[in-house]
Structure formats: structure tokens, C-alpha cells
From TrEMBL:
InterPro entries: SNAD1
Annotated keywords: Signal
The protein, known as: Uncharacterized protein
Signal sequence extent: 1-30
Pfam families: SNAD1
């Protein structure tokens, strides 16, 4: 979508800021976006029939996140299991498989809807979340204690970061896919009860840089009313989960600081609906 071009030339000072933002430092290593695309495309073939919101977390051996061929990926992500996932999602149930867990939003009478991202990340009364259970199940080690989701007060760096040789760490490649980007009103709303930043950041903080991604297919439509800057800044609060937009064009990183060129913000207006006034 084209962005609106204002009729008047903005002042020079306003032009300078985005330019400065375009020259940020280069990032460290990350997952291969082409391999990420293979995983997301494959999983998304088993999305619920009505193509509504759902989220899925996939935990694979690290080598499986470098595959560029779906045929090879099938050895790790069993098709029988994914069909099972689709069935569960169609009946709006939580799915917990060997290498993947998935959920749809849960609508509640007289209570706020529980978002699918939250359902995968939030602990039950025993302190275990579907995603912590998944990561425990797929760590290639025996005799490790079950991981408990740290309490809220613990913040976002409560799990030990995995390193080679570390016992009982989460040595997986973790891909978290959500159809819609995590929304500002609930998931990224720090004053709400369903804030996922710490839960998400905690889990991803335990995973090696090269083997983690938070991927979405589209910007949550109501969030398109946000300005690019507000949306991007909210996404940035999830520091440990590198974000990608994965659609028919492939997977593109959302890290681009030059927001007019950020592929994840395509179709989001540059300045919001209300014209901005220059200050000073
Ligand atoms: C599931 O994950 C485990 C542990 O990472 C891995 O050994 C296995 O190959 C994966 N796939 C299947 C189908 O079990
Ligand atoms: C796939 O998963 C199903 C159910 O978990 C299992 O019965 C089947 O043997 C698996 N197939 C392969 C090829 O691993
Ligand atoms: C954030 O959550 C609070 C409390 O639920 C709510 O009052 C507020 O409107 C929310 N903010 C946004 C931007 O939706």
C-alpha cells in the first residue's frame, strides 16, 4: 500500500530524525530467513479452516532450523501430528504435540478474551506453561527437572541461557508463529493482566540467538491505526525474540530502524491518521 504524501514539505528538522535512525549498529547473527520461511509455510498449511487467529510454538533440534527443503523438515515435524493440530484448532482446543504446541484465542463470557499467544505462554496452577512443557520435552537430555515458569516479579531474564555443554538447558530451535502480530492493546499492554512481554522474553532469553524467531503473517489489523513508530517501539520491547514478518514474499526481519523501509510495517501509515504539527 502507498503511504500518504503530505501536501506541504515537512521542516528539515523532521527529516533528520528518520535519517539518523537509519544508521544503527548491525545486529549479531540470527536465524536464516529462508529456513524460517520453510518452517512457517509448512506449519501454516495446517492452520484452522476459518483462517482465524492462532499461534503455534515449534521446538526442533537446532539443525532442523537450517533446512531449506520442506521434505527434509517433515522428518522432524510429523504430518500426522500437524493434522492432529489442525483438528484441535478447528475445535478451539489447545494442542500439545511432541514438537509443536498451538492455540486459538479463547472467548469467555463476561471476561476478556484470552489471546492465543498468552495461552501458550502463561503458567497453569503448577507453574508449567504449554511452551515450557514443549521445551522440556524436546531438550535432548534425560533426568532434568521440570521447568517452572518464574514468577512475574522475576522479570524477563530468569532462565539460564543455553550454551553448549550446559546441563538441562533448552537446546532447541524455537519458532513462535502467530498469524497476527502480538497486539498493542492486550499482549503488549504493560498495564493489563495479559501482558506477554516478560513471559515471552524469558522463554526466548534461554534460547541461542541463531535459533529463535517470533514470526507473524500480518500486522494485527486494528494495530494499523497506530503510527509506525509506536508500533515498532512496542514490538521492540520484546528484546529476546527477533521478529519476522512471514508472508507470500518470504520472511523479512522487523529490525530495520529506518521505518519507512521496514518490510514489517508495510501498509501501516507513517504518521497516523491525524496530521502532526511541528513543534519548536
Ligand atoms: C522432535 O524433537 C525431538 C527433540 O528435539 C527430536 O529428536 C525429534 O527428531 C523431533 N521430531 C520428531 C518427529 O520426533
Ligand atoms: C507421527 O506421529 C504419530 C503420532 O504421534 C506416530 O504414531 C507416527 O509413528 C509418527 N510418524 C513418523 C513418521 O514419525
Ligand atoms: C491497557 O490496559 C488497560 C487496563 O486493562 C486499559 O485501560 C488500556 O486502555 C489499555 N491500553 C491500550 C492502548 O489498549
Amino acid at each position: 500500500m502507498e503511504t500518504m504524501v503530505p501536501g506541504q514539505m515537512p521542516r528539515a528538522g523532521l527529516l533528520l530524525l528518520p535519517l539518523l535512525l537509519c544508521f544503527g549498529p548491525e545486529t549479531t547473527r540470527s536465524i536464516n530467513p529462508d529456513a524460517l520461511k520453510v518452517i512457517v509455510n509448512y506449519v501454516d498449511k495446517f492452520r484452522p479452516d476459518k483462517d482465524g487467529q492462532y499461534a503455534a510454538a515449534v521446538s526442533l533440534p537446532q539443525a532442523a532450523c537450517n533446512l531449506l527443503d520442506e521434505q527434509q523438515l517433515r522428518a522432524y515435524l510429523n504430518e500426522t501430528e500437524l493434522n492432529e493440530m489442525k483438528k484441535k484448532l478447528n475445535s478451539k482446543e489447545l494442542f500439545e504435540g511432541q514438537n509443536i504446541t498451538a492455540a486459538r484465542p479463547k472467548f469467555q463470557k463476561n471476561h476478556p478474551t484470552l489471546h492465543s499467544e498468552f495461552l501458550l505462554l502463561s503458567p497453569d496452577q503448577n507453574g508449567i506453561s504449554p511452551i515450557s512443557r514443549l521445551l522440556d520435552k524436546t531438550r535432548g537430555q534425560r533426568a532434568c527437572p521440570e521447568t517452572h515458569v518464574p514468577c512475574k516479579e522475576c522479570g524477563n531474564n530468569c532462565y539460564k541461557k543455553w550454551s553448549p555443554g550446559q546441563r538441562c538447558g533448552w537446546n532447541s530451535c524455537l519458532i513462535f508463529f502467530t498469524k497476527n502480530s502480538p497486539c498493542l492493546g492486550t499482549c503488549l499492554n504493560a498495564s493489563g493482566c495479559f501482558y506477554i512481554r516478560d513471559l515471552m522474553d524469558g522463554v526466548f532469553g534461554a534460547i541461542n540467538n541463531n535459533f529463535r524467531a517470533l514470526a507473524f503473517r500480518q500486522v494485527y489489523p486494528p494495530d494499523k491505526a497506530q503510527k509506525r513508530k509506536a508500533l515498532w517501539e512496542a514490538w521492540q520491547t520484546i528484546q529476546n525474540a527477533p521478529m519476522y514478518k512471514c508472508d507470500n514474499n518470504g520472511c523479512a526481519s522487523c529490525e530495520e530502524k529506518c521505518l519507512s523501509q521496514n518490510p514489517c510495517l508495510e501498509g501501516v501509515p507513517e504518521m497516523g491518521a491525524v496530521p502532526q504539527r511541528a513543534h519548536g
